[in-house]
Amino acid sequence: MEDFEKKVKITDAMDVENGADSSKTLHLLRKFLQIQQRRAQAYANLRRYEELWKSIPSSGALQTIWFLEESQLTNSFAVLEMESLFLSPEYGRDDLAHLLRSVQNQEKQKLHLTATIQLVKKAGRPSERLISHEKCKFKKPEGHECVHVHEITEAAGTEEAEADAEYDNALNEAIRGVQDSVTTINDHLEEIKYEIAALEPE
């Protein structure tokens, strides 16, 4: 009977200990979801301001990248702290630390590809780029000798089509990469939500 009482006391102590750990874990996971919500909002804001930034000559793409990097950097520090807590003996949740690390890696990849998309779009399709007449010769006020006027040959047309195809491929590859990252992030967030549901007191 005495052994049974000792076991019950040990089990009760472990339940209290696990309860404290699970509430802390629950708090960190909810905090992580809030960070992800802020990241999602940053990307939503980016889409909203994208058209406005396009009208600003060359600073638009750079401002877009700066905007996202600042948001990413701030959030990354908070997530790194959470990762280290999950790896600590107090939490002992390597699985959650690795899950957060995977989300971080996907966010970094998404940021890089989003910046690539912005820069490619800013450069524009080669066949549609505006021509600068800075190097043209102006003989009369009403006209000039344009250095861009040349005979259109099959080779020139092929070269332009290849440049357009390269542009399209680079843009589409970056877009697919962002979509893949978003899918992976969403899958990981679902895992985190399941973990939260399992930890929540009934």
List the helices and strands and how they pair.
Elements: H1 2-54, H2 59-87, H3 94-123, E1 137-140, E2 143-145, H4 154-199
Antiparallel strand pairs: 1-2
Helix pairs in contact: 1-2, 1-4, 2-3, 3-4
Explained architecture:
About 7% of the residues have low confidence. The chain is elongated. It is mostly helical and 202 residues long. It has a two-stranded antiparallel ribbon. Helices cover 78% and strands 3% of the residues. The longest helix is centred in the first third of the chain and has 53 residues.
Task: Please supply descriptive tags for the structure shown above.
202 residues; mainly alpha; two-stranded antiparallel sheet; 2 strands; elongated
Strand content: under 5%
How would you describe the shape? elongated
N-C termini distance = 32 Å
Provide the residue-averaged pLDDT: 76
